[in-house]
Amino acid sequence: xxxxxxxxxxxxxxxxxxxxxxxxxxxxxxxxxxxxxxxxxxxxxxxxxxxxxxxxxxxxxxxxxxxxxxxxxxxxxxxxxxxxxxxxxxxxxxxxxxxxxxx
Length: 103
Known about the structure:
Elements: H1 3-14, E1 32-37, E2 42-47, H2 57-69, E3 76-81, H3 94-100
Parallel strand pairs: 2-3
Antiparallel strand pairs: 1-2
């Protein structure tokens, strides 16, 4: 699998991860800031949470890691958490804002 195919599979996998408190996936919520496919088959994901004190932070990071590592061609998943910039509702996709009634 080439890098573009892996990127598509990673995006597909990330869209299956939901914040347990909000019925929208982490991509549509705007929680995924960056996804890099590395030459060695590794994947780097830099993401945030809706709040620094999110009680399910560990389980979301673990779920993202497991789903990426399960993709054929991926040798390693490095999921890093950041709060810079802090997440806000404007980072959500239009679809997510409509679904949650923010428009």
